[in-house]
Design brief:
259 residues, 4-stranded antiparallel beta sheet, 7-stranded parallel beta sheet, single chain, binds glyceraldehyde-3-phosphate, 46% helix, alpha/beta
């Protein structure tokens, strides 16, 4: 597009930030590469931004997923070793003892903390718990302490998913996915499925950050790569504009075109 030709990355970042009305935008420059390379570029930009903005006593909540795994992986930097992060606490946004251990929030919190030399608090609470089992687990002192820390997180770092992709990943049946689509679900974050207006249409019974905690978060950072997630982002950002967006150049341009 003409806009792409005449605007530099930093112009694009500012324009997008102003149009969205959010705090900050970081755009990873376009690479003519595979989806994985694009994700890696975005993750490196995110890691750099995070390292620049961390405070040594922060409490950081980090979500699961493949994007967050790459962000945590890329936190390895010389800068990380210049600063003493031994008082910084990293926590998963929610308990997740699902199938894929590599992309669970607990695992990602662990690698994030390890790369910084920070502390980690886990939430070993299964997703999808009901009623009294959930209440009981949430009253365990360790779990309660982490939930209290999550409530006062200095930064919440997460990615978004497409509703259909996430539902499939979580093993939802074809019929239930169709029902979810019929409700207008377009995106997913923190175990919440929301429609294009940012209204919650379904949620998992997870233990961790809930939507009110997210809306009241001091500082949240959403990281995503790939324009297939643009519509999910456009729904999500309506929930809380106290937000930093880190994405790739093509997605950034597409967001701008859709606003
Ligand atoms: O909840 C949404 C997911 O975190 C997105 O996962 O980074 O693997 O696409 P992903």
């Amino acid at each position: 597009s003409v806009m792409g030709e005449i605007m530099g990355i930093s112009d694009l970042e500012i324009k997008l930030r102003d149009k969205l009305g959010i705090n900050y935008v970081v755009i990873s420059k376009k690479v003519n590469e595979s989806k994985d390379m694009i994700t890696d570029g975005v993750a490196k930009s995110a890691a750099k931004y995070i390292l620049k903005n961390l405070n040594p006593h922060d409490k950081i909540a980090i979500a699961g997923g493949t994007t967050m795994r790459q962000v945590a992986y890329n936190l390895k930097s010389d800068k990380a070793y210049e600063v003493d992060y031994s008082n910084l606490i990293v926590m998963p946004t929610r308990g997740s003892v699902g199938s894929d251990i590599e992309i669970q929030a607990n695992s990602i919190a662990a690698s994030f903390a390890k790369n910084l030399g920070a502390q980690v608090e886990f939430l070993y609470v299964p997703d999808e718990l009901d009623g009294s089992a959930r209440e009981t687990l949430m009253s365990i002192p360790d779990v309660k302490r982490t939930l209290d820390h999550l409530r006062v997180s200095d930064k919440v770092i997460f990615s978004i998913g497409r509703a259909d992709v996430m539902a499939k990943r979580r093993g939802m049946s074809y019929e239930d996915i169709e029902k979810l689509k019929a409700k207008g679900a377009i995106g997913e974050a923190f175990g919440y499925y929301f429609d294009k207006n940012g209204e919650i249409v379904m949620k998992l019974n997870t233990v961790g950050i809930d939507i009110d905690m997210y809306k009241n978060a001091k500082d949240s950072i959403v990281v995503f790569a790939g324009s297939d997630k643009v519509d999910s982002f456009l729904a999500l950002y309506k929930l809380n504009k106290n937000l930093t967006l880190i994405t790739d150049e093509d997605s950034a341009k597409e967001i701008l075109n859709k606003l």
